[in-house]
Amino acid sequence: MSKKNKLTIGFAGTPELAYRHFLKISESSDIDIRFVLTQPDKKTGRGQKTSNSLFNSSAQEVEILQPDNLNDQNFKENLLAKKIDLLVVVAYGKIIPDWMLSYPKYGCLNVHFSLLPKYRGAAPMQRAICNGDSITGISFMSLVNELDAGPVYESYVHEIGSSDIFQLEDELLALSLKKINTVIEKIVFGGLKAKEQNHSEASMAEKIHKDEGLVDWNLSSKEIIDKFRGLKKWPRSFFKLGGELVTVHDMCCSSNDTKNAGEIKSFTKDGLEVFCGDGVIKIASVQFPGKKLINAGDFFNSKRAIISPGENLS
């Protein structure tokens, strides 16, 4: 296709992450967005007020489609009449049926926040941090009817460093926004072909479960802090104290001293120190169930009568 002609796409997405991609694509003078496919508006709160899609509330001059059923015959006929080169899918929230995968001239493009085939699934960024990886990235792939298994057009590497999940989400979003228009144009104008993943090297990034936030003091200090960084959005790291689950908002490794994992080394106005598998974890700010966040000094003042060095939190 000659670049003198605009390429035409449909866009499928729902949350703010998707909306940011939509806005970025909209900036390109070479791309014409024919429609947006987003999930139906939801009723929220006690009054069951309708929560409008970001795409509806933005008053963009583009057709908004919000079907309940992607296989509805009327919707299918309506969509098939809209000729597009590519369907770009970013966090749409529903499984794309086979007929939609093959309907655009160049298929469906999806962005996944890992270096595929590593970390297919729901929580690639969290798993990369929790597992102590030094690098991750984004993959632009062609959608197929198997989870995150489609051929990959382009991948871009990103160093994780000391980023927590909030920071990594922002960093990978910025990287994706920087690259997406170029990838779209290379597919349609430049003949970019997707390469099959090495399926034998695939790994899964399973959905995060709440019980993963419970600190395992037998782990190394690095492993505990990596999980703290990776689970900072949800469910956060927490430990048991007097029958309550105490949420940790700040922790670090304070020394390499070793003793019984889970044993309290010290409790002062500077924080709670607990032995782990290879050192000492220092916990500063915490939050008790139903209470506000408190700093190390307030933690000490409120709990020094019931927390003593030598006790075990395991």
Structural domain tally: 2
Strand segment count: 16
| Strand numbers in spatial order across the main sheet | 5-2-1-6-7-8-9
Low-confidence stretches: none
Provide the CATH architecture of the largest domain: 3-Layer(aba) Sandwich
The structural class is alpha/beta
Radius of gyration: 24 Å
Biggest beta sheet summary: 7 strands, mixed
Number of helices: 8
What is the CATH fold-level name of the largest domain? Rossmann fold
Write the layout of secondary structure elements.
Layout: E1 7-13, H1 16-26, E2 31-37, E3 42-44, E4 49-51, H2 54-57, E5 63-65, H3 73-80, E6 86-90, H4 98-102, E7 108-112, H5 124-130, E8 135-142, E9 152-159, H6 165-188, H7 221-230, E10 238-241, E11 244-248, E12 251-255, E13 264-268, E14 271-275, E15 280-283, E16 286-287, H8 296-303
Parallel strand pairs: 1-2, 1-6, 2-5, 6-7
Antiparallel strand pairs: 3-4, 7-8, 8-9, 10-11, 11-16, 12-15, 13-14, 14-15
Written account of the structure:
The mean pLDDT is 94. This protein folds into two domains: 7-201, 3-Layer(aba) Sandwich (Rossmann fold), CATH 3.40.50; 210-303, Methionyl-tRNA Fmet Formyltransferase, Chain A, domain 2 (Roll). With 314 residues, the chain is of the alpha/beta class. It is built from eight helices and 16 strands. Helix 1 links the parallel strand 1 and strand 2 (31-37).
Kindly summarize this structure in a few lines.
The protein has 314 residues and is α/β, with parallel strands linked by helices.
